UniProtKB/TrEMBL annotation:
Annotated protein name in UniProt: Uncharacterized protein
């Protein structure tokens, strides 16, 4: 049974961008700001003291299972 809140397409994209940017993080004030705040509320991202957003361990798990799952070869 699926028990995680649904991620809108824009928030899925914002979560993916967090994986792509890595350690530098995403600055606040960009167009995906509302999604980054939503992801933060869900525990999938966090805003650092410098104001940039980074992915959390929960966000990495969600990304791996829902956005970019690794396909096992048969």
């Amino acid at each position: 049974m699926w028990n995680q809140p649904y991620l809108e397409t824009c928030c899925r994209s914002a979560l993916h961008r967090l994986t792509l940017v890595g350690r530098p993080g995403r600055p606040d004030g960009l167009k995906d700001g509302p999604c980054l705040k939503r992801l933060e509320g869900m525990g999938l991202a966090r805003q650092r003291p410098d104001g940039r957003f980074e992915i959390t361990a929960a966000g990495q798990d969600r990304h791996a299972t829902e956005i970019a799952p690794i396909k096992k070869s048969a």
